[in-house]
Specification:
This protein has 19 helices and 14 strands. It has about 450 residues and is an alpha/beta fold. The strands form 4 sheets. It has a 5-stranded parallel β-sheet. A 5-stranded parallel β-sheet has the order 9-10-13-8-14. Strands 6-7 form a two-stranded antiparallel sheet. Helix 17 packs across helix 19 and helix 18 packs across helix 19. The longest helix has 19 residues.
Length: about 450
C-alpha cells in the first residue's frame, strides 16, 4: 500500500514516515493539505493519514475534498481531540478510523497491518468487495452487512470505530433491517468478540418470564436459571425490542448497568457482571421517555452510541447487491443467473419488510427456478406493481399524480392477488370493464401476455 502522511508537526511527520518505511510501507510525508492535494493530482495513494487540526485547512474539510475526488482512498485521522463526536463526524465524511495523539508508530502500523489484511482479503474475495475499477471498497460486505449506499458506508465505518470501545449501543430501525446482524458485527469485531453474544427478545413474553430470562432464578424449590445477563459476562448482551421492557424491569436493568451487579429472582446475593449492552428498537425511545413510559436514565445508559438503520426503500442502490448475495447464498453450488429486468423490478418495490422480506423472496425465486435463469416473468404481480406511497409529516412535497398512480397499482395488485391472476375476475372485483382493467394493467406493468 502507498501511504501519504499529512502533519504540520515536523518531528512527528518525519518519524512516522521513517518508521512506516522500515515496515516496507511506501510512504510520503508532507506538511500541509495544500501540498497533499497537489500530490493527489499526479500520484495514486491507497491510504491517507492526516492530522485533524492544522493551520489554513481543518482536517475534516481536507477529508471532504479528498473523498470527493478520490473516493477509493482510505483515510485515518490523527487527533489529540478524539471523542465519539469527533470520530463520528470524521466517519460521516468517509474516514476509515482515527487514532488519538499521542500514539506510537507501532499503534499506527498495527492499524495499517489490519487494513492490509482486509484489502488482501478483498482481493482474494474474502470480504466479497468488488469494483469495476482496480480500487476496491465501493461497497463492503462486513460480517454479512451489505451496502454501497452512503448511509450504509457510514454505518460500516462507525462499526469499525465503536467496536473497540465498551460504550452501549442503541440500534433503531424498522423490522427486518438487520439490527441483530449489526449487533453481532459490533460484538465480533470488539475485544469481547471471543466471549458470548447473548440475545434476548423483550417482546411477546410475560413480565415474569422476561425477568427470569434476563436475570435468572435462584430458589431451592424450583429450577435454577442462570439468566442471560450472567451468560453474557465479559461479552455482549443484545436486547431486542428493548422498548417492550416493563417499568419494573427497566428499573432493575438500570441498576444492574449502574453498579455492574444484579440479583437473581428469589436470590439475595449480588452477582457482579461485566457486559456491553446493544439494544434494538423499532420505535422512538426518546418519545417514550417524554411520555413517561420509559425511564430517562436508562435511555441515556443505552443511547451512548445511537445507530439508525435506514429502511431498504431509502437505499435502493443496495438492492442489487443484496439480491446477488442471496442468490449465491441459496444456490451455493451453481449460482443461478438472474435477468437484469427481474433485478430492476425487485429494485422498484418498496419492501415494507425490508431486507428480511427481500431475502425470503429471493429464496422463493431460487427454489422455484428449477436451476434456470430467474426472469421477469417469475416476479409476483404485486411486486411488479409496487406499493403505495406512505405519507408522513417529514415529507416536504408530494406528487398528486404519483400518489394516484401508486393507489391504482395497489388496487390492481390486490385484485390480481385475490383472484390468482385471473384478469376477468380481478376486473369484476374492482367493478371495471375487462378491457379497461387490461388497459390499466398494461399501463402499470407493461404488456401482458
Amino acid at each position: 500500500m502507498k501511504i501519504l502522511v499529512v502533519d504540520d508537526e515536523k518531528i512527528k511527520r518525519i518519524t512516522l514516515r521513517d518508521d512506516l518505511r522500515e515496515e516496507n510501507y511506501d510512504t510520503i510525508a508532507v506538511e500541509s493539505p495544500a501540498i497533499a492535494l497537489q500530490l493527489f493530482q499526479n500520484e495514486h495513494f491507497d491510504v491517507l493519514v492526516t492530522d485533524l487540526r492544522m493551520p489554513k485547512m481543518h482536517g475534516i474539510e481536507f477529508l471532504k475534498r479528498v473523498k470527493k475526488d478520490h473516493p477509493h482512498v482510505t483515510v485515518i485521522i490523527m487527533t489529540a481531540y478524539a471523542s465519539v463526536e469527533t470520530a463520528v463526524e470524521a466517519m460521516k465524511w468517509g474516514a476509515y478510523n482515527y487514532i488519538k495523539k499521542p500514539f506510537s508508530s507501532g499503534e499506527l502500523i498495527a492499524m495499517l497491518d489490519k487494513l492490509k489484511e482486509i484489502r488482501e482479503g478483498i482481493d482474494k474475495g474474502g470480504l466479497e468487495a468488488h469494483a469495476q475499477t482496480s480500487h476496491p471498497e465501493p461497497w463492503r460486505l462486513y460480517q454479512n452487512i451489505i451496502g454501497k449506499s452512503r448511509s450504509m458506508q457510514e454505518i460500516l465505518t462507525l462499526i469499525e470505530t465503536i467496536s473497540e470501545s465498551n460504550g452501549n449501543v442503541l440500534v433503531s430501525g424498522e423490522s427486518g433491517t438487520g439490527k441483530e446482524l449489526l449487533a453481532k458485527s459490533i460484538h465480533l469485531n470488539s475485544p469481547r468478540g471471543h466471549h458470548a453474544f447473548v440475545s434476548v427478545n423483550c417482546a411477546g413474553v410475560s413480565d415474569e418470564m422476561l425477568e427470569l430470562e434476563i436475570f435468572g432464578r435462584e430458589r431451592p424449590t424450583e429450577e435454577h436459571r442462570v439468566g442471560r445477563i450472567a451468560l453474557a459476562h465479559k461479552g455482549t448482551l443484545f436486547l431486542d425490542d428493548v422498548d417492550s421492557l416493563p417499568m419494573s424491569l427497566q428499573i432493575k436493568l438500570l441498576r444492574a448497568l449502574e453498579i455492574g451487579a444484579f440479583e437473581r429472582v428469589g436470590g439475595e446475593a449480588q452477582i457482579e457482571v461485566d457486559v456491553r449492552v446493544i439494544a434494538a428498537t423499532t420505535v422512538n425511545l426518546r418519545e417514550k421517555v417524554q411520555c413517561g413510559t420509559y425511564i430517562r436514565d436508562l435511555f441515556y445508559r443505552l443511547n451512548v452510541v445511537p445507530i439508525f438503520l435506514p429502511p431498504l426503500r431509502e437505499r435502493v442502490e443496495d438492492i442489487a447487491l443484496l439480491i446477488n448475495h442471496f442468490v449465491e447464498l441459496f444456490s451455493p453450488n451453481q449460482p443461478i443467473p438472474i435477468a437484469q429486468q427481474a433485478v430492476e423490478l425487485l429494485a422498484g418495490y418498496a419492501w415494507p419488510g425490508n431486507v428480511r422480506e427481500l431475502e425470503n423472496m429471493v429464496e422463493r425465486l431460487v427454489a422455484v427456478s428449477g436451476g434456470r435463469e430467474i426472469t421477469a416473468d417469475a416476479i409476483p404481480i404485486d411486486l411488479k406493481l409496487g406499493t403505495h406511497i406512505h405519507l408522513n409529516d417529514s415529507m416536504s412535497e408530494v406528487s398528486f399524480h404519483e400518489i394516484i398512480r401508486s393507489t391504482e397499482r395497489e388496487l390492481i395488485a390486490w385484485a390480481m392477488k385475490k383472484t390468482n391472476g385471473n384478469k376477468t375476475q380481478a376486473a369484476k372485483l374492482l367493478k371495471m370493464k375487462p378491457s379497461t382493467f387490461r388497459d390499466a394493467l398494461t399501463k402499470n406493468i407493461g404488456q401482458i401476455e
